[in-house]
Structure formats: C-alpha cells, structure tokens
Amino acid sequence: MRGTGTPPADSSHIEGERERRQELERVVSSLEATTAIAQALVGETDLDAVLDLITTRGRELVDARWSAILIVDGDELELRATSGDMEMRPIGHRYAIDTTFAGQVLRSGKSRTVSDLPRYATEEDRALVEELGAEHALLLPLEFRGRAVGVLMVATSLAETGGFTAEDEQLLQAFAASAATAVVTAKSVATERLRQSVAAAENERRRWARELHDETLQELGAVMVLIDTVRGSGRSKALGEVVDRVAESLEATIAGLNRMISELRPATLDELGVASAVAALADRRRTDKLAVEIAVDLDYEGGRQATRLAPEVESAIYRVVQEALANVAKHAHATRAEITVVEADGHVIVEIRDDGRGLGSSDTSGTGLGLAGMRERVTLLGGRLDVLSGPAGGTTVCATLPVLRA
Prior knowledge:
- The protein folds into two domains: 11-192, Beta-Lactamase, CATH 3.30.450.40; 271-406, Heat Shock Protein 90.
- It is 52% helix and 20% strand.
- The chain contains eleven helices and eleven strands.
- Strand 1 and strand 2 form a beta hairpin.
- Helix 9 runs parallel beside helix 10.
- The chain is elongated, with a radius of gyration of 31 Å.
C-alpha cells in the first residue's frame, strides 16, 4: 500500500522560495521607504527634516553603517545631513564638484559602487575614512526633471565584507528619485516662505516710512510753526533762550526722522531708480572720517535699456549697499569705502570695498555683521553673495545678481 504522506520538498524549490521571499521583502522595504518620502512631501516641508529622513531611511534600506547627503550649491556640494556612527566632516562643509568623486557621480548622472573608498575619498577626508574603517560605498545622484540636486552616499566598514549588491543599488535608485522630489519640494517651500518674508518686510518698511512722513513729521512741523510764532512775539530773553533750545532739538529730531525714513524706504528708489537711491545713501554715509566713492553703470540709467530693473532686484542692490556701508561705519574703523554697481553680461555686480581692519580670522562669513539676511535676499533671486577679507585688513562685499526687468 502506497503511503499517503507528503513527499519531501525539492531543495531547489526551497531555495527558489527563499529567493522569492527575500525579493518580496526588498520590494516591501523599498515601498515603505518610498511611502516615507511621500509622507514627508505631504506632512513635512522643512528642508532639514526632509534631509534627515532621507539619510536615515536610506541607510536603513540597505543596512549601511553610515549615510550622508550633499546638496548642490553653485559649483560646490554642501554636506547637509548624515546618519550613522561615522562622524566625518561637520554639517555645512563644502566640497568642490569638479574635484571630488561625488561630483563626478553628480556630473555623470549615474550611481557608482565603490569597494575601495579611501582611494576615491577627497584628499582632506582620506585619512579620516581610513581611520574610521570605511571601505564600501554607494553613491547615487539626486536628480529632478534633469536637474542635479545633490548626491546620496551610503557606506559600510571594512569588517562588513561583500559590500553593496546590485539589488541594493536598484533599491536606492528608486529611493533616490523620491528623495530628489522631496528635496526640491522642501526647497521650493522654503524659497516661497523667504520670498513672502522679504516682501512683507519691504511692505512694512513702506508703511512705517509713510506713517512717519505723513503723521509724525507733520506734527513736528506744526510745533516748529508755533515756536517760530513765539520767537517773534517779543517775549522775555529767558523764554527766548528756552524756545531756541527747543527749536534746535526739534530740528535735530526732524533731521533724524528724515534719515530714518530714507533708510526704511527711500522715495528715490521708487521714483528715480536704484542709481539715485544708492548715490543718496552714499551721501548720507559720507563724513569727515569716512570717504565714500561711488560708481554706477546700469543699462537703464545709461540709456541702453528701455525698462528699469525689476523692483526686487533694485531693492536687493540697495539693501546690499546699505547693510555693507552700515557695517563699515559701525565695525570696520575704515577711512574709505568704494561702491561699484555695474551691469554686464546679464548680471549686476555690486561691490563694496573698505580699508578697515577686516573681519578677522574668527569670522570670514560675514554672518556676525548682519549679512545673513542679505545673503538670503540675494540667493532668493538666484544670485550669490561673497564676503572676503584680506590678511592685511579691508573687506569686500560682492553680490552677483541676475538681470531681471520690470
């Protein structure tokens, strides 16, 4: 009689089932990671939070020891987030695109697996990579609609043999596509918030300038009329002296308010354009102790264009000069400042140089001098702001802005 039990399973069949189960687990893992990024798009628009999520989920996805994300900023890659137990460079560290392996991956638009990371690491990071024992790495470009956004990098240690597989690479490629979308979305939201903030600040400046001019100055002017009436009424000498002192104080207050109104929102900027506004600003900053020279060559003012620069560009030019001159007056101990505003090749170059003591070795970013907001304003327009200080002193603030017409 033939037995009724289940025949033993074929070993190849068991192996096939195991492989299919592992493949299914990888698909599920990829789906979970993609879902996490999709949820970030809906519920999280803070760029730093999105970057932290990408590095954490990317590392977990392929069981890597460490991960990092570098974001494109001009011709450099900026380290913006890391995850894992390998501490390399601090957040904010910059690498040149053209001289780094990550930059090569970004330029090629293709992911790369590396089994000898110390060989491909930048010169400044090579010793650190060897010390940490990082050998295997997988680098993936982050692209959105053909535009390079950044590079995602995951790494393992020397003790973890085998490195990353082709399946790992495919898994992270799908993940990187969602990650790039999340990064661009978060950056767009941040840019729009900044744009609204800058616009709101300018509107608030206009409102305060208008109220100070239409109300406060007019009231003070009326007081001056009364004082002049008292002066001419033939009152006592003592009363006349008091009235004279009050009049001098009022005149100084009115002059100060006029300067404040011009600083808040100069009428010349709206009515005559940025060249006249910058010239008036230089006149107000010029003193016996500080010589201020100015040279402006813009196409509209020079008769080479029929339309002015866009209001946001003119405002940015004015605010860069205003902030830089304020820093010269307050911090630089300079005797001379030179302002140059030149339009050429589709850009406006704004430079403010002084012969002061410079920023010092402890601060070459300019953020300590109130230029952080200026950098945001310039970056918002697609431009760049650099603050340079020489070893012998002196500071140069240079803003490069794209030409946008009204």
